[in-house]
Specification:
Layout: E1 41-44, E2 54-64, H1 70-76, H2 85-94, E3 96-104, E4 107-116, E5 123-127, H3 143-149, E6 153-157, H4 179-189, E7 197-201, H5 203-214, E8 223-227, H6 241-248, E9 252-257, H7 268-279, E10 284-288, E11 303-304, E12 316-317, H8 324-334
Parallel strand pairs: 5-6, 5-7, 7-8, 8-9, 9-10
Antiparallel strand pairs: 1-2, 2-3, 3-4, 4-6, 11-12
Helix pairs in contact: 4-5, 5-6
Length: 338
């Protein structure tokens, strides 16, 4: 079993996932990357019929690292956040670091990711929200319990403009229009051949909503969890198209709402979710949480991790401190028991 104290290891080379040529070093740029694809594949819009749903304008190349990234290594060595030695050992033994090159039309993105995948397991994609403290590490405390209790595979990524991914810092406008294509390229890069679940906060949830509007087959029959999914543009071809996709593809979403100055009940998304709740719509459940008593937004003490975030918080890792009760709720929703 891999030792949880390997932060002192020398930096190793990064191996490409698909190319058989010799290894070379690769470092994801935080600006628009000027990179050449050495062995690109097309993303697909339907995981159950990938060969006939290829998208020629969305290509990817996944480059797995030969070792865990410095950020993940430093994070997992925090015994304050990861008190359980079994959890730390599992993270070091199972989590892999990767960079995914994605080209949508002529726009190139590099996506930083960490994952633990096993064949034939259901898979959960975790997406962070928008802000200087948001990155792949926010949801990491769900990785171990999901793997142990229900044997889920997990994927954590930095969205463009966040963490180690490319793009202007904390700026959604430069990639919003390509958000759905970026998500399906991420999933396609792991050669997943079944639909997936998503756990997402704020902007990550908004990107997922738009992806459901364009590519609902990726979420067929799954349970999804959103927290404060603020969104104005649903990318619908017609009003009600989002709800129609939920019904047609048997997609169920639970939206947890914790009101604050950035997520008020007067925003477009909350009004729409509440309207669906009042109408008795079965495929979306809105759950109002009391900000004075909820625990979903509690964090562990800040961990110093160099270059894990952006802006003033670039060396600070924030990890959600989730209660056992909430973790069980997540599992029940993913299992469609709620």
């Amino acid at each position: 079993m891999t030792s949880p104290t390997r932060s002192s290891e020398t930096k190793k080379k990064i191996t490409r996932h698909v190319s058989k040529s010799p290894e070379r070093k690769y470092s994801p740029s935080r600006l628009q990357p000027n990179l050449l694809f050495e062995s690109k594949e097309s993303a697909y819009s339907d995981p159950m019929d990938s060969s006939r749903s290829l998208m020629q304008n969305v290509v990817f190349e996944r480059r797995d690292r030969g070792s865990l990234s410095p950020q993940a290594t430093e994070l997992f060595n925090s015994q304050t956040t990861f008190e359980d030695a079994a959890e730390r050992s599992w993270l070091f033994e199972n989590i892999r670091s990767t960079t995914i090159l994605i080209k949508v039309d002529q726009v190139v993105f590099t996506i930083n990711g960490n994952y633990a995948l096993r064949e034939n397991q259901p898979c959960v994609l975790f997406l962070h929200g928008f802000g200087s403290t948001r990155n792949w590490a926010n949801w990491i405390k769900l990785a171990y319990p999901l793997s142990q209790r229900n044997r889920y595979s997990v994927i954590f990524v930095d969205l463009p403009g966040f963490g180690q991914s490319s793009g202007r810092s904390l700026d959604q406008t430069s990639w919003k229009r390509y958000g759905p294509e970026i998500l399906i390229a991420i999933l396609s890069s792991f050669h997943i051949r079944h639909s997936v679940s998503v756990v997402a906060q704020c902007g990550g949830a908004a990107t997922t909503v738009r992806t459901i509007s364009r590519y609902p087959q990726w979420f067929r029959g799954r349970g999804l969890i959103f927290s404060n999914s603020v969104i104005g543009d649903f990318f619908e071809s017609k009003i009600g198209g989002f709800e129609a996709n939920l019904t047609k593809y048997n997609i169920h979403i639970v939206v947890y709402w914790i009101p604050d100055q950035d997520h008020t009940k007067s925003c477009v998304a909350y009004k729409r979710w509440n309207k669906l709740r009042l109408s008795g719509f079965r495929n979306l459940q809105l759950v109002d949480l009391d900000p004075a008593t909820q625990t979903m937004k509690l964090f562990y003490p800040v961990i110093r991790v160099v270059d894990i975030s952006r802006g003033s918080s670039k060396n600070e890792a924030y990890v959600y401190k989730l209660s056992d009760a909430f973790i069980q709720q997540v599992i029940d929703i993913l299992d469609r028991k709620s």
